[in-house]
Specification:
The protein is α+β, with helices and mostly antiparallel strands. Among the domains are: 43-60 and 218-314, 2-Layer Sandwich (Beta-Lactamase); 73-215, PAS domain (Beta-Lactamase). The chain has helices spanning 10-72, 76-86, 92-103, 109-115, 118-129, 161-167, 216-223, 258-269, 298-301, 315-352, 368-386; strands at residues 133-140, 145-148, 176-177, 181-183, 188-198, 205-214, 232-237, 242-245, 278-282, 288-295, 307-314. The longest helix has 63 residues, at 10-72. The two termini are 47 Å apart.
């Protein structure tokens, strides 16, 4: 008997090996891609929630400053001083003379007269007790300085935009809050809160209280947002300009995802369903980041404060553990595939091999049919002899 032979078709084996490997890699990449997309969406939603919390903290801080400034405008000393100053007739020539004296270096009688009032003493005490108040200035209904926490830059402020906006028509007045800007006199980044001052008996506006408040605490709120090594928060305007950022930014710099920010905010305002306030964007250097945003509620009360909190984190940092696990998984799958193929090859060879004792000594084995034929011939021969 011929020994059975085993031949491996290398081409077929190689084709199936390559196709199987490609399908394995493609399937793994597809599954990992789905997982990364889900992780990106879930983490973007988390960043949006962090942005919501940060925006709420910023709104609370600013509203508290506004309430405090409004309370200061209702203090009896402030209202009485504004009413008393407003009772003096407005003389343009006299105002010009005081203005010249006000601008003169050194102590001036007009300045000392204003600074020695009870209201000025109260305002100065407020700035000493709470350093976030950098300047408090009280004018009468004509815009003349009636009291101040310290020497001011001028005597008549009726032509200043902030004064005209707050005074209005003189019947009720308006509460005005400025955007964050650098205050040269206070040498700090702050906002102006301008509140109308009513007469002690109520009714007409008898003065305006201007408060300059240091808002660097907003920067501390943003700096407290830490999302890994690359996460940070920024307070930006809807046009992309920065209000505050957790890190230093160049003057005039824009938020790196301004276009996407505007697009999402516009879609959200139009009521488009399923418009998530989180997205992926790349910085100017090409670094991909995930961004979650939240709109400040200050705009509802002060339309010019179109602030947005943006919290972002580097995508590479987020996906680093996943990619490391995916790489390890690919190695394990590859080694497993190689082990299975080697075992299948070895087992196929074993099954194709002939048994060890397949050749038998045929002369030792008598076929049953031949044995019966020999016995029949012997019986016939014996019968012939007997006859």
């Amino acid at each position: 008997m011929r020994r059975a032979s085993f031949r491996l078709n290398v081409r077929v084996f190689s084709v199936f090996l390559v196709i199987g490997s490609v399908m394995l890699v493609a399937a793994s990449y597809f599954v990992i891609g789905i997982g990364q997309a889900g992780l990106r969406n879930a983490w973007g939603e988390h960043l949006r929630q962090v942005a919501d919390q940060t925006a709420a903290a910023v709104d609370t801080y600013v509203f508290r400053l506004v309430i405090d400034a409004s309370v200061l405008s209702r203090v009896p000393e402030v209202r009485e001083q504004a009413a008393a100053a407003s009772r003096r007739p407005f003389d343009p020539e006299a105002v010009k003379g005081v203005e010249r004296e006000w601008q003169r270096p050194g102590p001036a009688a007009a300045v000392q007269e204003v600074m020695n009032t009870r209201a000025s003493g109260f305002l100065a005490e407020v700035t000493r007790q709470n350093p976030i108040y950098k300047e408090l200035l009280l004018t009468d209904r004509y815009g003349r300085v009636a009291a101040a926490s310290g020497p001011s830059g001028g005597y008549l402020h009726a032509d200043a935009p902030w004064w005209r906006d707050a005074f209005g028509d003189g019947t009720r007045g308006n509460l005005v809050v400025s955007d964050v800007r650098f205050e040269p006199r206070a040498r700090t980044w702050g906002i102006e809160i301008i509140a109308p001052v009513e007469a002690p008996a109520g009714g007409e506006v008898v003065g305006i209280l201007r408060t300059v408040v240091d808002v660097r605490e907003i920067g501390a709120v943003l700096g407290g947002v830490r999302m890994g090594a690359t996460g940070d928060a920024a307070l930006v305007r809807e046009d992309g300009s920065f209000v505050f950022a957790s890190g230093s930014v160049d003057p005039g710099a824009r938020f790196f995802a301004t276009d996407l920010l505007r697009e999402r905010l516009t879609a959200a305002r139009q009521g488009q369903p399923q418009t998530p306030l989180h997205f992926g964007a790349s910085t100017a250097s090409g670094t991909p980041r995930i961004v979650g945003v939240a709109v400040s509620q200050l705009k509802a009360s002060f339309p010019h404060l179109a602030w947005v909190v943006a919290v972002s984190q580097g995508e590479d940092e987020l996906f680093a553990p996943v990619r490391a696990q995916a790489f390890s998984l690919m190695i394990v799958l590859g080694l497993t595939a190689i082990a299975v193929l080697l075992f299948a090859f070895w087992y196929s060879v074993r099954l194709a091999a002939p048994p060890a004792h397949d050749e038998m000594d045929m002369h030792l084995a008598r076929h049953p049919r031949l044995h019966r034929i020999e016995e029949s011939e012997e019986a016939e021969q014996e019968a012939v002899r007997m006859v």
